[in-house]
Write a structure and sequence with these properties.
Blueprint lengths: L19 H8 L8 E5 L5 H8 L3 E5 L12 E7 L8 H14 E8 L12 E3 L2 E3 L5 E2 L4 H12 L4 E4 L2 E5 L2 H12 L24 H4 L1 H14 L10 H9 L4 H10 L4 H24 L10 H11 L2 H16 L1 H13 L4 E2 L5 E4 L8 H14 L6 E6 L4 E7 L9 E8 L4 E6 L2 E3 L2 H5 L6 H13 L7 E3 L1
Parallel strand pairs: 1-2, 1-3, 3-4
Antiparallel strand pairs: 4-9, 5-6, 6-7, 8-9, 10-11, 11-12, 12-13, 13-14, 14-15, 16-17
The structure holds S-adenosylmethionine.
The site of S-adenosylmethionine has 22 residues, from helix 3.
Length: about 475
């Protein structure tokens, strides 16, 4: 690491709405009127203003913007995007320990994660990067952050989103939260606004305003492909605008990054593009496609960006296929998933899981679902998925309503990967072990309701989907 002055406070943005972690904490019901909040590393204090406007008692401290403010204990402490701007790993631990000590019930920690923003062209510094504005950014792996949080606090964190975890001091708080979240409860954040007086004097239009159309084009590309475009991947009118404004393409890329390519949406785009490419390649191999070797420049760039090389890409796709072809591996993976509360195994050894939770399955099983959805196309309605890797089939069931204590399926779409075929059926069944499929807590009320229904319908409890 070479010497450099890092201006940490320059990372603090002006916000008009809640930050992502604070907004998530409100929507998930952690932060609400009546609880006390302390914002550790509050930056310019916009979250505090927004919480105050909605009647939440919130104060904060920041070593640059509010160094004199006292550090208070509070029920909820937010450590929002602080750890990632600290270049010294030992100091990160000090900040985390300090924030945890103030939290009487819950600490919410958020950081930037790998893949959240493009790092091409940034200077490496320690375990992160130096930006053009002399700020430091460390991009964490989700597992790395989780391990750090566990090690420092001794508490297993609960992931709220990529790069955002909550640490609960009281196990019962965690249980209540998990149950509520799995039931899909959401609170609106519309009352939480950090409005500041409007600026009056506008001098010269900012770069972002002058080349707004170009920035939109670059951002749109980045969010679709999970990477930044090359000059030949944007339309000529973008180049015309940049030429008229005398702005280079590299500067426009920089401005797009500064304008804030939404980190979470970008990470999602990277993930989706990678999965799309792997599934695409896996199907190419399955079909022995002759065109698989003839790739467009854009696709080659995607592969290089997301897998390093074509060879590594091919190897990863093959690895997925080999894993899928190995019955023992898939059985183990499905058992592992259900043991971990992800879905339920039915009488015939198939995994039944809510569609929304498929993303949490391990890669091989996700690839399995991906192959199926590649063939069927995703379906709009809420549905559950049944994975049957032994017979090489995946079935999607649409439900009457998951809110019913005992939902029925309306129809099923079975995707036969061996035959590359999709069969749609009118297929009424009863979803018996709903709690397992949707991942409700062991002690949930839902389970006892299900048990009663099983007795009433004369269904053995071990069935997940029962024919009616
Ligand atoms: C990216 S900003 C985040 C501000 C705010 N939490 C938000 O989400 O808008 C990072 C903030 O961390 C503060 N900071 C830097 N070092 C810190 C430390 N050791 N402890 C607490 N805050 C720190 C900086 O002054 C800066 O305001």
């Amino acid at each position: 690491m070479t010497n450099a002055t890092v201006h940490r406070h320059r990372t603090a943005m002006v916000r008009h709405t809640l930050s992502r972690p604070m907004s998530l904490a409100v929507r998930l019901g952690l932060v609400r009127s009546g609880v006390t909040v302390f914002d550790y590393g509050c930056g310019q204090g916009d979250d505090l203003r927004a919480l105050g406007a909605a009647g939440v008692q919130a104060v904060g401290w920041d070593p640059y913007f509010a160094p004199e403010a006292p550090q208070h204990k509070a029920e909820i402490v937010n450590l929002g995007y602080v750890l990632n701007v600290i270049e010294d790993p030992a100091e990160r631990i000090v900040a985390l320990t300090g924030a945890w000590a103030l939290a009487t019930r819950i600490l919410v920690v958020s950081v930037m994660i790998v893949g959240a923003v493009p790092v091409v062209g940034l200077r490496q510094f320690g375990d992160g990067y130096l930006t053009a504005r002399s700020t430091f950014q460390k991009y964490f792996q989700q597992a790395e952050l989780k391990a750090m949080l566990t090690q420092v606090t001794g508490v297993e964190p609960v992931a709220l989103a990529p790069g955002i975890f909550a640490l609960f001091r009281l196990p019962e708080d965690e249980q209540d939260f998990l149950l509520e979240r799995r039931r899909g409860s959401r609170t609106s954040t519309s009352a939480y606004r950090a409005d500041r007086p409007p600026r009056t004097a506008v001098s010269k239009p900012q770069l972002a305003d002058r080349i707004g159309t170009a920035i939109n084009a670059i951002t749109g590309f980045a969010l679709e492909r999970g990477r930044l475009p090359h000059p030949d991947e944007v339309t000529p009118d973008v180049h015309d605008l940049l030429a008229a404004e005398r702005v280079s393409f590299a500067r426009a890329i920089e401005a797009s990054r500064d304008a804030g390519i939404d980190a979470e949406m970008f990470a999602r785009a990277v993930y989706e593009r990678r999965e799309d490419l792997l599934v695409h390649q896996a199907l190419n191999i399955l079909n022995r496609s002759r065109t698989a070797t003839q790739l467009s420049t854009a696709m080659l760039r995607d592969i290089r960006q997301h897998f390093g090389s074509q060879q590594q890409f091919g190897e990863q796709a093959l690895e997925y296929l080999h894993l899928l072809a190995d019955p023992q591996r898939t059985v183990t993976a499905m058992q592992h998933a259900s043991d971990g509360g992800l879905g339920a195994i039915d009488e015939d050894g198939r995994l039944v899981i809510n569609r929304e939770r498929v993303a949490k399955l391990e890669g091989m099983l996700r690839c399995y679902v991906g192959c199926a959805l590649y063939l069927s196309g995703d379906i709009e309605q809420e549905h559950i998925v049944r994975l049957d890797p032994l017979r090489r089939r995946t079935t999607l069931f649409t439900l009457t309503s998951r809110r019913e204590p005992f939902p029925k399926t309306k129809m099923s779409i079975t995707i036969d990967l061996k035959r590359q075929d999709v069969v749609i059926r009118d297929d009424p069944r009863i979803l018996v072990r709903k709690a397992d499929v949707f991942g409700m807590a062991r002690r949930s009320r839902q389970r006892s309701v299900e048990a009663e229904y099983c007795v009433a319908f004369g269904i053995r409890e071990t069935k997940v989907l029962a024919k009616v």
